[in-house]
Specification:
By secondary structure, the chain is mainly alpha-helical. The chain is 31% helix and 5% strand. 46% of the residues are buried. Bound molecules: heme C (2 copies).
Length: 479
């Protein structure tokens, strides 16, 4: 075997930008492209390991990254505009905090001259051969897929700067989706222990500076300590103190709630730690921690069996791209299972779903409160649409991973530095409180709930009518 990690590692920092931007062939001399399932002329960037040694000094890297940033952001903007209607079209339904409207309408653009109804009538082979699968239904690349890593939205960066004087702004890349497709910020907090209180956030973003005041008298000492740890920054691949970082000043790192803002999500994204080579990795949109208490598997691919396991391993591995070697260099935090992890997990298990006033104790619509269209949508969800087979009430997840096999509809190809190919099984996320957490799917490829209805209609072949699709969306908004 070749010492792949070292060789690719040293070359990667220098090679990846120019190949990506100029489309130069990758002169690797490896025979392993076929094994990795990627074309000969494509740079895998990292095969298994990431570089431990960085070739250039920090200043040189930073200057180059700053210079390249606009090219990458323009490339991503072009992709997003090609895929989606990005306009601001609020509906009259508000997210649970009552501050931000849910966006409406199908936003995934169709190929010229074809409708969703026509697509649904074709076989997957026909869609693939005629290249008619809407681009917005494909896996979404990271805004700078070549580097990847955690990217925090602007609103959260500003707030943390104000509250903690901690800078979460990367110099090489920035958040790419418009604010109207992001969750409410800061999101409300509902606790399983005190449903009578409603939202306990006071409209504030929890931070290490204010959490104690906000939660005093509401949490136990154990939960309070768990929350402190969830708000304490620890080193991460791009946010750390070494020369291999993507923030200007050496950084204390990132906290759990820098992405899971207020126990929900702010739509921060990164690349999954589970897939190799690097170009095949999946973009991951931060999931909400609401309702985690009832879920049996965690992570879209990792399928860890407890919140404790995910908590323990998130900082150790996911923060470092699933690579324990670079983690050791950058100061990984190894939380103690009994005195830290257990407390952090207990706190996470308190974050409740937002209230759903139209649902009864079985998680089904109360006919007294629901409209005719919503009831019709429920009927479609549980019967013709077959949604409930993977998203059963009352929690609207079956705690399983399913392979939606969307790769039947397209040929594998490169797009913005990402190898677009089969994704494989993914956790069926819960749909409770779903209107609060755009964008949708593990990678955030779908901006609205209407898009998810079109996606599942096509991919599962259930052939819903326009009326049924509209009713289904109305039902999803009740969850
Ligand atoms: C990028 C910002 C980010 C940070 C920081 C972060 N997470 Fe996550 N978290 C994610 C993403 C993205 C996922 C989805 C992972 C996946 O799909 O495999 C996730 C998944 C989870 C899940 C499982 C959710 C599910 O649906 O199965 C838990 C629990 C969790 N994180 C807890 C934590 C804890 C605890 C920390 C701090 C140690 C943390 N996270 C830090 C982004 C983040
Ligand atoms: C075969 C199982 C299966 C069926 C049937 C199914 N889903 Fe899903 N659903 C999943 C999986 C798996 C995911 C995660 C996919 C991903 O992220 O790539 C998901 C994700 C979603 C999401 C996005 C969740 C999020 O947090 O971003 C929505 C919304 C959704 N499904 C709605 C529906 C609707 C509506 C139907 C019926 C028309 C349906 N699903 C049918 C398995 C299923």
């Amino acid at each position: 075997m070749r010492p792949v990690g070292f060789r690719v590692g040293a070359a990667a920092a220098a090679v990846c930008l120019c190949t990506a931007m100029a489309g130069m062939a990758f002169a690797a001399g490896y025979e392993s492209h076929e094994k990795m399932g990627i074309p000969e002329d494509v740079d895998p960037i990292h095969e298994t390991y990431l570089p431990v040694m960085i070739e250039d000094d920090f200043e040189t890297m930073m200057d180059k990254d700053i210079k390249d940033k606009s090219k990458f952001m323009e490339r991503q903007q072009t992709l997003l505009e090609r895929r989606y209607d990005l306009s601001d079209r609020p509906s009259d339904v508000m997210m649970s905090g009552g501050e931000k409207p849910v966006q409406k309408g199908v936003r995934v653009k169709l190929p010229e001259g074809v409708s969703f109804e026509q697509l649904a009538e074709m076989s997957p082979d026909e869609v693939r051969q005629k290249e008619l699968f809407p681009e917005g239904f494909l896996p979404l690349p990271h805004a700078k897929h070549e580097t990847g890593g955690q990217v925090i939205p602007e609103n959260h960066i500003k707030k943390i700067e104000e509250l903690e004087q901690r800078n979460l702004e990367r110099f090489d890349v920035e958040f790419d989706l418009p604010e109207h497709f992001q969750p409410e910020f800061p999101p409300p907090i509902f606790l399983t222990t005190r449903p009578d209180l409603g939202d306990v956030s006071q409209g504030k973003l929890l931070s290490i500076k204010n959490y104690y005041d906000i939660m005093h008298g509401i949490l136990t000492p154990v939960q309070m300590e768990g929350l402190r740890l969830l708000l304490t920054p620890f080193p991460q691949q791009q946010f750390n103190q070494t020369e291999d970082r993507k923030v200007e000043e050496p950084s204390l790192g990132i906290s759990c709630l820098d992405c899971h803002a207020n126990g929900h999500t702010n739509a921060a994204f990164h690349l999954n730690p589970d897939t190799r080579p690097h170009i095949a990795r999946l973009r991951l949109d931060t999931v909400s921690l609401r309702g985690m208490f009832n879920q049996q598997i965690h992570g879209s691919k990792r399928s860890l069996r407890s919140v404790e396991d995910l908590t323990e391993f998130e900082q150790r591995t996911a923060y470092f791209d699933g690579d324990q070697v670079t983690a050791a260099k950058k100061g990984v935090h190894l939380p103690d299972r009994t005195s830290q992890v257990a407390l952090m997990a207990q706190m996470q298990n308190l974050f409740d779903f937002p209230p759903a006033p139209k649902l009864d104790v079985f998680g089904r619509l109360d006919p007294e409160k629901a409209t005719e269209q919503e009831l019709k949508g429920e009927e479609v969800f549980f019967n013709k649409g077959r949604c409930a087979e993977c998203h059963p009430a009352p929690f609207y997840t079956d705690d399983k991973m399913h392979d939606l096999k969307s790769a039947r509809f397209f040929e594998p190809h490169m797009s913005n530095g990402k190898w677009i190919t089969a994704v494989g099984p993914i956790k069926s996320f819960t749909l409770r409180g779903i209107k609060d957490s755009p964008p949708y799917m593990h990678d955030g490829r779908l901006p609205t709930l209407e898009d998810t209805v079109e996606f599942f209609n096509l991919v599962t072949g259930v052939n819903l009518t326009k009326e049924e699709k509209e009713a289904l969306t109305a039902f999803l908004l009740c969850l």
